[in-house]
Input
Amino acid sequence: MVKKTLKIGVVAKKTGLTVRTLHHYDQIGLLKPSDETESGHRLYTDSDIARLHQIVTLKQLGFTLEEIKDMMNNSDYNPKKMLNLHLSRLNEQINQLVELRNRLHDIFELLDVGEAVSSERFLMAIQMTKMIASPHFSEKHKVEMIKKYKTTVTNELRKNNAVGKNLLSEFREMKENGKLPSDPEVAPLAKRWILEIESVAPEGFIQSAEHYYSENFTESIAYGMDSELYHFIKEAVSHFT
Output
């Protein structure tokens, strides 16, 4: 009886895999063709094709190639243990997707303000949903943040952002010019900072925000607030609080 064998190109066409993928499986020892032609070309047997179908099925279930290799090459392998590990991984991914869906829904709700959505409002909505999800803010803070966001028109948001950026720029200039936080020249700037924060932030919000940004410092950097500048402003403001 003539043994049925297939060349790599035929296997690729029949399975929908690429020749490159089959070569990779061969290189890592996952699936090595069992036969070859007289000229040295590798050939896949029926048992190789059956093994390939098992590999494809396990890969579709989300197992890594290394896990599949261990599973298929080790007769003592415990599939139940691997399934439990994979289920845990899937549950974590599902939880992440649910969290992402909820965040997108929250962003959508925040953007429903009865006016055209600007890029500033969209980015602020994204930031808002992250802060709302943080345990550092009380329910009262979260309600007030949402209310403030929804009742503030885009032009006012832009104005507030511009004022904040200008204040940070002025603080940075003072610091780079060698001024100390206690310097009399810094005092008017610190007072303006306090007034600006008090006009937009509810009571107790600043302390919560400090805890939040200490864990998410890259976000404060995006607004132009690095660690050194933060401590400079905090010390300057402390003289008036």
Remarks:
- The first strand starts at residue 5 and ends at 7.
